[in-house]
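Protocol step 4 of 6: record predicted structures for both targets in the notebook before any analysis. Target 1:
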Amino acid sequence: MSIPGIKTPTVAAAVGNLADFLNVSGEWHKKHSEQDGGMLSNLWYRGVNAHFEPQCPGVYRDSFTKRAEMFQIKGDIEDKRLRLERDMISNFRSAGAAFHVKHTPTEMYFSAQHFGMPTRLLDWSTNPLAALFFACEGEDGKDGFVYAMDARRVIPENAKKANGQRLWPSVMLMHNPLVDYAVKVSFWYDLNPSRRHPWKDRPAKLVFYFPHASRSSGR
């Protein structure tokens, strides 16, 4: 089974100071941004302090997969990943119950990602300087990397919903129905794919990428 993730691109430009970074990122932004594109930027940035291939969420990294493999349950590795993820999110939900009284499952899931729990989320930022911060947050003498993408391209041009309708390329935020569905899979919700599942693929394989106005992760 292929691991969900974003293929890490080759380095387009090397910069040695803030001024160079602003020039390079500014030119890229000018080239790819939409005029009158609305309040939400479709251009996202991700900063990492080392090279990783591919850019994949915590649930699909080697350390999490090795832990999941130890589960003595029926099913393939994807079933075991989902079981470990569900156990962890259940513990997070119980331990922080006093702080999550008014939170929806989706808000809780984003909170778990913020505090370092492996999830199916991959942090991006609409602010290139936030990405640069995390790219520089490594060991001295080692290069960091900032990646940029058009968030609309996460959804392929020919993508369709289960009912056959086209799924238009767009920036999906926290409270989008598709996002809400994907998160509920990790909360032991009993969802009937034949009635509610908006995707044709197995729900456990869903991966979403979201921007944050002021934060990106180191990995």
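Target 2:
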Amino acid sequence: MIDGVVRVVAEETASERNGMRCSSFGIGGRRGRFGLPDPALIGDGRPGACMPYIATMRGAKQIYPGRYVPDTLVGLIERARVTFSHCVPTLLEMVLAAAKRRSVNLSGWKVIIGVAVLPQAVASQAFEAGVDVFAGYGMSETCPLLTISQMLAEMATWNRDRQIEVRCRAGRPLNLAQIRTVDDAMNDTSPGEIVARAPWLTQDYLHDQAESDKLWAGGWLLTGDIGMIGPDGYLKITDRLKDVIKTGGEWVSSVDVEDMLRQMPQIAEAAVIDVPDPKWSKRPLPIVVPREDDAVEAEHVRIHLMGFVARGLLSKMRRPRASRRDR
């Protein structure tokens, strides 16, 4: 493949501007910090868009499962002794459940998670199953990977909860990649919008100069994601710019609150949206799906979230005041 225009279709929109300019260096001409064991199960998740190229260049065996049927995936992992995969959090959770149901040992399986934030509850399940799971971050415009949350050597002795928290962050930048979190004037701030520079980023959208100019306003690629960078250099995604909730002058990360809700054993799925409030303008509203045969009442959710308030992980102002239950 030579440098030029490659048609890339992003999942988040269906507009014509998803034709963008990528290079061979961007799609497959670099090695990530995570390496690539053999064999690799090539599947779902934006960080994996470059995996077929990397796997081919390294001579790794590749397995393409077709439809994502959890029992089929578990069978392939067991029979082919798959050592590396990439997927979205929901698919990982389904595979973990299928493996547990079939008594399949997943120890030694390495998985990188993309497209959505890796919930700590899911990472905890994977950790208990012996899966080396960690998150990656990128988007179609970054072709596709910017950061990865593999553990540093000194973190190997940390307890499980501390390790899981790090594994669920977006991670540290790959070699040659730079990231910042900025305000509207491109001043460094935390949290702020994540902006990036790297040799492999798309330079423009096909036949859409106006959107290309917006993408690179200020000389950095604007991701539209909100995050913060810790002292250890690990990036944490807190929300999409368009999804962040402002209540009483404070920003509430729907991603953080959703992750806290998912840590409640009775909750299978959770989403947080904003609703009008006469006093605070907007308030976060959690919508939860109980696990089968489990009952979840609003008071149970309130008590669960107050535990995070007591630990200083959630402002009392930012705590949702109501909840809705869906089946």
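Step 5 preliminary note on target 2. The longest strand covers residues 267-277. The chain has two domains: 4-173, 243-325.
Proceed to step 6 after PI sign-off.
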